[in-house]
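Design review, sub-item: ligand-bound model
Attendees: FS, YL, KQ
YL presented the inputs for the flavin-adenine dinucleotide complex:
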Amino acid sequence: MKNKFDIFIIGGGINGAGIARDAAGRGFKVYLADKNKVGSATSSWSSKLIHGGLRYLENYEFKLVRESLKEREIISKIASNITKPMPFIIPYSKKLRSKWIIRIGLFLYDNIGGKTSFPKSKKIDLNKKYKGILKEKFSDGFKYYDAQIDDKKLVEMNIEDAKKLGATIVENNKVIEVKRNDFGWEITLENGDLINSNALINASGPWINEIINNVIRVKTKKPIRLVRGSHIITKKLYEEEVAFTLQSDDNRIVFVIPYKNKYSLIGTTEVDVIKPDNPVISDEEQKYLIDVVNNYFFTQISKGDIVETYSGIRPLIEDYKEASKVTRDYIFDLNIQNKNSPLLNIYGGKLTTYRKLSEKVIEKLSPYLPTTKVKNWTASKPL
Ligand SMILES: Cc1cc2nc3c(=O)[nH]c(=O)nc-3n(C[C@H](O)[C@H](O)[C@H](O)COP(=O)(O)OP(=O)(O)OC[C@H]3O[C@@H](n4cnc5c(N)ncnc54)[C@H](O)[C@@H]3O)c2cc1C
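KQ shared the predicted structure:
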């Protein structure tokens, strides 16, 4: 068939963009369509961290944390111009996690990812270092490191590379219908274009099940839970280039992170929602974030100090737990009817793990794709 693509990707968030770059670099003919601008959804509304996810250790997610720490190392190198290491302080609070729990967590965090260029964690005296930021009752703390990134730029850089490697990228063009036939997939875009492809990848983030049910029309095996996470932005609460990992009374974590030189980025929340479209922070979420900050910081803030807010939707795999305990790992759902028309649905995931996810996608689809001599290549090639 003329003009047939090897891979069609629905969605140009970080996952779609990463897969497009990886696949195009292996010589596959790739087509990616996004209904809006690439990177305009969840992938630009994150906490902008490339992190192992210290908190996930509490949920015994050792595999995810290990993979994320390894990726933190790799992404800091291949995207060094948009990534910077950031120290994080966990103030110790008597009522919450004990010192030994924090120490065990940090010991694991320092070690399970293997060799790292990030400094090891340590205990610190907050009356000596970073004095005057937190209330005096928070005298003990722990310092560890993660990385801050420009999330939207990360998507755009992957897309630019994918284009250079020959991928076709189309923005503002929704996938409205797909048909499976003996030779692959016929995909209809909103502007009427018909595209033929061998494999179809559903990388539509929080829209995943909407697309499975209404566009692809296959049976979905995995229920998901849509959870809104919101941030507030205030003028910076302190001068130092250091972030805080605050434990809230409900045992969640709220980050306060230096943002664009002049601001503090504060988030997130977890609120179950029905639809993934146009998420907006509620009054309760604003109050929740303000209360956590005011519990710890000398500088007290109120609603009037908020200069901007944003919200994103996490598509979490439903396992009927509290939102903070639901896995942040990704899961693939490979649907095969005949070997010419594989469908891969991608559930969940994190910004941090997009590169590894992309490699695994290619590995999963390789029995159904043309053979290629190019092995895994993205870990050492700067964006
Ligand atoms: C509040 C919050 C904070 C987070 N913080 C972090 C963090 O600090 N670090 C981290 O590693 N991870 C973080 N994450 C997770 C991370 O942001 C997501 O895992 C990641 O952005 C998901 O990318 P994605 O490509 O799957 O989805 P998205 O970025 O949502 O991309 C999906 C794309 O599909 C497109 N699409 C949908 N339907 C169609 C259609 N019919 N046709 C064409 N295109 C379509 C959409 O327009 C969208 O661009 C956070 C998530 C949230 C919600």
